[in-house]
Amino acid sequence: MEAVRARIASRALTNGDRLPSIRGFAGIMGVSPATVVEAYDRLVAEGLLRAKAGSGFYVSASALLPLSLPESVPAQARAVDPFWVSRQSLDAGPDTAKPGCGWLPPDWMPAEALRRALRNVARADASVLTDYAASHGSHALRRLLLARLHGEGINASANQLLLCGSGTQAIDLICRLLVKPGDAVLVDDPCYFNFRALLRAHQIRVVSVPYTQNGPDIAAFETVLATERPRLYITNSALHNPTGATLSAHNAHLLLNAAASHDLTVVEDDIFADFEPEPTIRLAALDGLNRVIRIGSFSKTLSASLRCGYIAARPEWIAELADVQVATSFGGPSPVITDVIANVLSGGFYRKHMEDLRQRLLKKQHEVATKLRSIGIEPWLMPRGGFYLWCRLPKGCDSADIARLALEHDIVLAPGNVFSAAQTSADFMRFNSAQCDDPRFWQVLAQAVQAGRAQPTSVESKHG
Amino acid sequence: MEAVRARIASRALTNGDRLPSIRGFAGIMGVSPATVVEAYDRLVAEGLLRAKAGSGFYVSASALLPLSLPESVPAQARAVDPFWVSRQSLDAGPDTAKPGCGWLPPDWMPAEALRRALRNVARADASVLTDYAASHGSHALRRLLLARLHGEGINASANQLLLCGSGTQAIDLICRLLVKPGDAVLVDDPCYFNFRALLRAHQIRVVSVPYTQNGPDIAAFETVLATERPRLYITNSALHNPTGATLSAHNAHLLLNAAASHDLTVVEDDIFADFEPEPTIRLAALDGLNRVIRIGSFSKTLSASLRCGYIAARPEWIAELADVQVATSFGGPSPVITDVIANVLSGGFYRKHMEDLRQRLLKKQHEVATKLRSIGIEPWLMPRGGFYLWCRLPKGCDSADIARLALEHDIVLAPGNVFSAAQTSADFMRFNSAQCDDPRFWQVLAQAVQAGRAQPTSVESKHG
């Protein structure tokens, strides 16, 4: 390969020239013909050569152009908007600390179980490896998910479940089906920032309701349903993102009654469910998948690399959602991927993995909360599980300012207002306990908090 | 597991009951405690039991409900619309013949290479198996794709390439960015049916231009640009779906000039490129990725199960498309999947695989064309490659009628008008040469054609 590259660089070979025959070049180089074939083939894959059937190998028309391929696309300077955390976290370099990101580090995830599952799926029928899935997704995972839903008291039948590309894509498909540009959609304040980015992409009017430690403020919820007539309400019932709070049974009941009297559809995004130490009430179970749509994924508990989510809903909605998914993606997740997930979920591994994770996270959450309190940052509540701590900063600190400063030190934080449709959370920040190990993070945070406290440009003077 | 199931069925154990301890049940059954743990765990995965940390296993609240899980969701009776072929093909049972579908059978696809690649990726870094990809997709595949684009004379830089979930999703993202409801989008008549389904999902006004054996009819193209002002034109330049025709160099030049004078953006969907015996002209190369957006995928050549597409375009569009993809799917394809593809593409395997496929298809295309001609069905042209034959039926035959009839015999066909925005193709049908082996198909087709010829309700009398 180096010999060919050198000849092209020195223009001994140029655009369109035929390369020496396999046999001839093998003789010149003193290697086997198979080695030359492999080298030529790799140069074809790199775009330097072109193979013509039955005629040999030729130098590509563009072989002389310099190929600039940086490791990654540089993150853009951007506003502290709902995209801020995702793009900065996704495109972070290996030396970046990410206490603001929404997932566990690789060494918390079950890599060995995934390796085993991949080796198992490598032995699957050829059709699993090469064919499209059925429109509702492959059977093994759908069967397991239906069983899990039944276990939660959600008695979905086979035509009430659709696999899709991710939890986010689940909501996207639902918005395509049930909402049109200009409609109002209700979210919690605060809520997962990407709900806001997604709704913006749909040109939807976002309205919000304050979130309390027991779910949405029900009086405010009823008012906003009456005045704004939202078509959808998107929420997390347990281990709410970012607060870690959990909906109470009483609020769940009131919420569903209010939804019924205003014909509101509720999307219950349950991706953190398996982090709960004990299951709590679910809107989908109370409602029996009538006006509640359940969505979920395994990105937080198994692997974010796998890309698979699901939707459980009324049969007629599932049929329409399957059509929308075919029209816009020609189907759902890869059958290779869904079989890997089914492989990990069946048997006892997953339950033990989640028990271990919960134990480890419980300890970590308390350690990080203690450290945060020691620099004046107070968790709004101690969540029953999961990895988020939603915290109030000391008086005078603006979380967007601190996040911008931290980014200069290669630290990605999640400032409060990216979660807040009403922009009420400038003095809050979400921390991911499992991503807080870097000492630089604690240094920069402590300094920033101290500086914020000392400054006259307080949050109140800027935002209140 | 059977013993537990029997106890639940006989109501010896019921909702909420605690199961015997591991040790106790192992004693009763005469097996090891590890066996009991495994059995309980599997029953948890099936939803029959629930594990409570530190307390044991309990019968699920819903364990007594019958679980009805049919192998697949029954295909719906539906109109012969743009969804018809996809849903019938995707949800076809194992005994269904699919001469209408748009992909190769599993035994034409490189299953062994995919198995090898999966085993290789099973050894990758834990982060590949568990983390999200960077916003533009993982590095290895992007690098190979850029090299391939350079090899075609499309000198894209790293910030001009985005990986996404499929070729279809590529177009979906582009529509989200560049088109709004009510805008016009131009397609060929005939064109790939799912373009029509996709545009319908976007509430886009579809306009069309007749497709000739050398590309779109350029006079008609210029007229429709002037009168309808479409925002986008979506096409396949080589081995056009469904016709198999290829754009001529002269038409490519005229088309781009017309596009420039009406500020039209062109989406060149190139998923059949690697089936060409020799590369032909590409709009993306002529234009230099200015107003042309190139999309592609490996669903037709490697595996439809893998779910990965790409978009090459102007840097500012790629940056915005990456944001839209994060907002609506939280990222692109699985890094596991993109590494599997990169693994298969690097080295010489892929080139040899495609040479073999082309040889095998060439033979098959001629065999099937000969058989079709023998029952009066005439290919509109013999394509230079690929697996489609776009054929005119004998006078009197309506392709939708024949497709409905064939479906009663478990045969999925692709009737002409699902491809035609202007509904001009009632007497055409698209056949997939690689999917025509079932003798039942030839029987049913020959009979249907004969019946159609004999009937007075001809296409002419019904459709004008």
Task: Furnish the topology, listing elements before pairings.
The structure is a homodimer of 464-residue chains.
Chain A: H1 2-9, H2 22-29, H3 33-45, E1 49-52, E2 56-59, H4 84-90, H5 111-121, H6 126-130, H7 139-151, E3 161-164, H8 167-178, E4 184-189, H9 193-201, E5 205-212, E6 215-216, H10 218-228, E7 232-235, H11 249-261, E8 265-269, H12 283-287, E9 292-297, E10 309-312, H13 315-329, H14 335-345, H15 349-374, E11 378-379, E12 388-392, H16 399-408, E13 414-415, E14 428-432, H17 439-454, H18 459-463
Parallel strand pairs in A: 4-5, 4-7, 7-8, 8-9
Antiparallel strand pairs in A: 1-2, 3-10, 5-6, 9-10, 11-12, 12-14, 13-14
Helix pairs in contact in A: 2-3, 5-14, 8-9, 8-13, 10-11
Account of the 3D structure:
Chains A, B: It holds the Pfam family Aminotran_1_2. Chains A, B: One of its GO terms (molecular function) is transaminase activity. Chains A, B: Residues 1-62 form the HTH gntR-type domain. 2 copies of one chain form a homodimer. The first copy, chain A, is an alpha/beta fold. The first copy, chain A, has 3 domains: 2-59, Winged helix-like DNA-binding domain superfamily/Winged helix DNA-binding domain (Arc Repressor Mutant, subunit A); 84-108 and 351-463, Aspartate Aminotransferase, domain 1; 111-345, Type I PLP-dependent aspartate aminotransferase-like (Major domain) (Aspartate Aminotransferase, domain 2, 3-Layer(aba) Sandwich). In chain A, 43% of the residues lie in helices and 13% in strands. Chain A is built from 18 helices and 14 strands. Chain A has helices at residues 2-9, 22-29, 33-45, 84-90, 111-121, 126-130, 139-151, 167-178, 193-201, 218-228, 249-261, 283-287, 315-329, 335-345, 349-374, 399-408, 439-454, 459-463, and strands at 49-52, 56-59, 161-164, 184-189, 205-212, 215-216, 232-235, 265-269, 292-297, 309-312, 378-379, 388-392, 414-415, 428-432. An 8-stranded mixed β-sheet of chain A has the order 3-10-9-8-7-4-5-6, with helices on both faces. Chain A has a 4-stranded antiparallel β-sheet with strand order 11-12-14-13. A two-stranded antiparallel sheet of chain A has the order 1-2. In chain A, a hairpin with a 2-residue loop joins strand 5 and strand 6. In chain A, helix 10 (218-228) runs parallel beside helix 11 (249-261). The longest helix of chain A has 26 residues, at 349-374. Chain A is globular. Chain A starts with a helix and ends with a helix. At the A-B interface, helix 3, strand 1, helix 4, helix 5 and helix 6 of A face helix 3, strand 1, helix 4, helix 5 and helix 6 of B.
